[in-house]
Amino acid sequence: MKLYFHGGEDIKKRDSKEINEKAFADAGKSPTVLIFPWTADVEKIEYRTVMYDYFKELGGGKIEFAELSDSFQELKEKIESSGIIYLPGGNDKILIDRIKERKINPLFQRYNKVIIGNSAGSLVMCKRYVVIKGQEGEPKTTSKEGLGKVDFEVAVHYKSAIPELSGQSPDRELKKLSRKMNKQIYGIPERCALVYDNKKIKPLGDVYVFDKGKKTKL
């Protein structure tokens, strides 16, 4: 099992292509890619076309979409036959709610191939994840419940040039939260990623660790 936690990629610009190339190489030749366009923003046809073309260029074989109209059995078959699952950016709460409503979280827990999460898609893979004050209009920095694929916390769009994405004073907020929760938090910038490979963690690009109120580079 390999999990790719993107800090944020503009899929139209393909600005994390090298990271995705590694993920596709891990999945083997011409993997079937299953995309979950359940985060509101990527439900639009234009985004589906962008993702389809992008993943074909990366070496994907069959490109499928998990539809909200699919039955549980149809989703189960799509998940089990895929070599890569892609969880896009957008609204993390909508993505989590839809996965839970369809009762397919156990299928994610059993999945042992490659999962690529982009921004919101990265967040939901965690048991808990961080939303910094100012992100998504949050009034304060908080730790939210994810789907529990891994037992560590991440914060995405770390130090983004766009305040609405980075949140307010991310260093101060992440130091404070790591001290309060006594747990490590990984701050992942855009165009960078954290790779989880059977309990081993490595950065692709600059990734930062917040632990007991201190910040270090991974």
How would you sum up this structure, described in words?
This protein is α/β, with parallel strands linked by helices and 218 residues long. The chain has one domain (2-217): Class I glutamine amidotransferase (GATase) domain (Rossmann fold, 3-Layer(aba) Sandwich), CATH 3.40.50. The chain is 33% helix and 25% strand. The protein has 8 helices and 13 strands. The strands form 3 sheets. A 7-stranded mixed beta sheet has the order 3-2-4-5-1-10-11. Helix 2 (45-57) links the parallel strand 2 (33-35) and strand 3. It is globular. The protein starts with a strand and ends with a strand.
What are the defining features of this structure?
Rossmann fold, alpha/beta, 7-stranded mixed β-sheet, globular, 218 residues, 33% helix
Order of helices and strands: EHEHEHEHHEHEEEHHEEEEE
Q: Which CATH C-level class is it?
A: Alpha Beta
Q: Any idea what the CATH architecture is?
A: 3-Layer(aba) Sandwich
Rg estimate, integer Å: 16 Å
Number of helices in the DSSP assignment: 8
Helix fraction, binned, reads 25-40%
The neighbouring-strand order within the major sheet is 3-2-4-5-1-10-11
Distance between the termini: 21 Å
Range of strand content: 15-25%
Task: Note the main sheet.
Answer: 7 strands, mixed
Total discrete domains: 1
CATH superfamily: Class I glutamine amidotransferase (GATase) domain
